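Appendix B.2, paired examples.
Example (i):
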Amino acid sequence: MRVYRELKRASAPLATLARIRERAARQAARDRLARQRVDAAREAYETSQPAPAKDSFMLGRTIGNDLEPRHTKGQSHDNVRFVLDNEPELPDCEKFWIVDPDEEARIVDLLQSRGQSFHTIPFELDMAPALISFAAPGQPSTCRARLMPSRRR
């Protein structure tokens, strides 16, 4: 049908028929080449698939300071020890602790004795006013965070 429409529009049918054949041959060659490229890409994709990765996750805990009189002195340490004593090993889970400096020495010793990963957050009292600025009453307060050096263990 397409050839018929092309011939109908042409003024010289024989010359046009030759051009139609050439165009069809070029189109067929392009189609074959495209199919070959797609097949080659599909085969390369299927053979290059890595083995599925095993799912894993991280459980992070931040241990803050004891807020007396709400908490007893050393409660953070006791809570960490309770978790370490009673929480089972979770398959494919990495546990990570972020420790506040208040009870840092005792908690760090406990975590190191149990082979846990942790990170400490330094607190510098002279830096506190520079971190937070308060607006006038009735105005929204602003907080400017600044990165402070930390120690990773």
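Example (ii):
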Amino acid sequence: MHRPGTAAIGFAIEAAARRNTGLTAVLAWGAFDVINERDTLPLVSETGALKDEEHRVLSEALADWAQQYPEVAIKQELVRERPATALIERSQNAQLVVTGSRGRGGFAGLLLGSVSQMVLHHASCPVAIVRAPMSVSVVPQGVVDHGDHAP
């Protein structure tokens, strides 16, 4: 399981504040998702430990936003099901579904992931897909570094 996207959470809570409504933060995971690339065997067999860890991850991701927007009631939902399925089901009672996108950089980073694709095409309400801001490297004009530095 990847950490919840800060950009998507920020977009969602700001949208909820503008709409004067609450926010339901959904963290869904399947049987073989991993947190921080740990070994999956304990996670699969210890469902309670996995749920506790996911709750901690989601709470930490929301903490600063909740302080910045105390007027937005935030409900947390932890579900063990495919993320796309969880979001599509909850879209039936939502004004907006916000999801992040794990772009991998380069050309692949321009494409939508499988969860974003499914939600975009099957949700019952508008969908916002929020990417993290791209980091930009600034190279001084006229300087070319070919990596072959003489001693």
